[in-house]
Backbone:
């Protein structure tokens, strides 16, 4: 992405590979994964690649160690020269899995990372996300996203990261079923959007979709909201009242924040799920209702069960088809497509003309933690549109509208931990976290991180290669 208003899909990868068969294999893997979102350039030697590298068109450079040896007397010297020419591009060394020493030399010389051949598109995508966060290269993440106009192509969702493509596939597969769906995820990740997508993709799409938030309705009113009430059932019940379950007959009922529902009401909901019938308040007769239940919570449901705040039998009745929505910080490739989508929508609503985001803003947004997830990003972009007249959104405009960050700084709040408290991770995961934190502290420089940890750079390389293989398994 060379400027703030270009499509985030315009990502160029330069492949430097002398082996024709390996080049075709890598090209096939990358094309199969990214399709039209990828522009791939190929060079058969380091010298042939010099003009392309110096032109600055490449966002990512994949360089085979043996191919670029013509740029220097050693792999380290060759990659040092390549890294100096590469300017802002991400440089990734490629080689066979047994070239540990050569890979370490390349990393010492300035390569951002190393991948063993054959290269898999998904593995490279994950690595680019990680490198983009570490080095502030938001444009390198754009290869995961489509243009803004085409990003909103799955029932209201925006984003084409591997994590979200997995969610889309999951929704598509389970939507035709009548079985209950249990959606988990932090606040602002899109749980209601997921519920609506399930409804739209189901045979019930022409019937009602009714959403009710258990946390927003007082406990004393929740029963009548769900099950309805007969006329005269209580003081003020002047007319017959249909509940949400009855209103959703034939369609889908979405119960948001179900973990906040009163335990006594949970037992009545369980009975409805078991019998398929409801009884209005003030009536003795039951009514048969055909409703698919989709529920959601931003809390750990098993913790709620252990704390006796959520009935275990109700949980297992509802937890048939689970969906977990990843937080925005785990899919940074979706940040700018979302931001551009919001910018376009709100600019149209406010009658203003905005031209996109400055690359510095993209780097700033991708590096954010986004504790409020998509909703927080949406609110920030809306404030930018309301506060300013238009043009290219720059860092000054973004910072002026970013009241959440100023509040965090003013309160001295520490960044949120990436893992839950009280959970003991396996040794390899703790080791991985320590090494990755050291790499973050030294800007991805493996040699410096290894020196700080008092281990050899080759140890870091071997560990990361092992984690990658473990993840692939």
Residues:
């Amino acid at each position: 992405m060379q400027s703030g208003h270009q499509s985030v899909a315009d990502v160029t990868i330069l492949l430097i590979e002398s082996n024709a068969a390996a080049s075709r294999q890598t090209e096939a893997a990358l094309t199969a994964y990214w399709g039209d979102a990828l522009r791939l350039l190929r060079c058969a030697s380091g010298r042939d690649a010099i003009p392309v590298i110096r032109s600055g068109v490449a966002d990512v450079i994949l360089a085979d160690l043996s191919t670029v040896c013509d740029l220097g007397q050693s792999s380290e010297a060759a990659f040092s020269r390549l890294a100096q020419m590469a300017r802002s591009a991400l440089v990734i060394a490629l080689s066979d899995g047994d070239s540990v020493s050569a890979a370490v030399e390349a990393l010492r010389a300035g390569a951002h990372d190393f991948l063993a051949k054959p290269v898999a598109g998904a593995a490279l995508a994950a690595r680019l996300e990680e490198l983009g966060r570490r080095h502030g290269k938001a444009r390198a993440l754009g290869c995961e996203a489509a243009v803004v106009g085409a990003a909103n192509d799955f029932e209201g969702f925006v984003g084409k990261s591997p994590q979200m493509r997995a969610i889309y596939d999951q929704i598509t597969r389970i939507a035709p079923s009548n079985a209950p769906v249990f959606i988990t995820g932090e606040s602002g990740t899109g749980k209601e959007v997921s519920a609506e997508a399930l409804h739209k993709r189901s045979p019930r799409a022409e019937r009602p979709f009714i959403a009710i938030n258990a946390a927003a309705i007082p406990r004393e009113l929740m029963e009548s909201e769900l099950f309805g009430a007969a006329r005269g059932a209580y003081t003020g019940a002047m007319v017959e009242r249909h509940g949400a379950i009855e209103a959703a007959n034939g369609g889908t009922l979405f119960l948001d924040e179900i973990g906040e529902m009163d335990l006594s009401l949970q037992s009545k909901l369980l009975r409805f799920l078991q019998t398929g019938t409801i009884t209005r308040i003030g009536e003795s007769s039951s009514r048969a209702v055909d409703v698919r239940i989709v529920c959601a919570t931003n809390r750990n449901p098993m913790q709620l069960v252990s704390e006796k705040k959520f009935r275990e039998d109700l949980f297992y009745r509802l937890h048939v088809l689970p969906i977990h929505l990843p937080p925005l910080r785990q899919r940074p490739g979706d940040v700018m497509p979302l931001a551009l989508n919001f910018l376009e929508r709100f600019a149209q609503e406010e009658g203003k003309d905005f031209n996109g985001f400055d690359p510095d803003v993209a780097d700033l947004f991708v590096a954010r933690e986004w504790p409020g997830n998509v909703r927080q990003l949406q609110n920030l972009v809306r404030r930018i549109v309301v506060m300013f007249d238009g043009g290219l959104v720059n860092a000054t405009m973004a910072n002026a509208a970013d009241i959440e960050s100023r509040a965090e700084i003013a309160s001295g709040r520490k960044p949120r931990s990436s893992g839950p408290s009280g959970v003991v991770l396996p040794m390899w995961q703790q080791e991985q976290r320590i090494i990755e934190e050291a790499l973050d502290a030294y800007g991805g420089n493996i040699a410096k991180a290894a020196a700080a940890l008092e281990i050899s750079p080759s140890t870091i390389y071997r560990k990361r290669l092992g984690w990658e293989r473990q993840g692939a398994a």
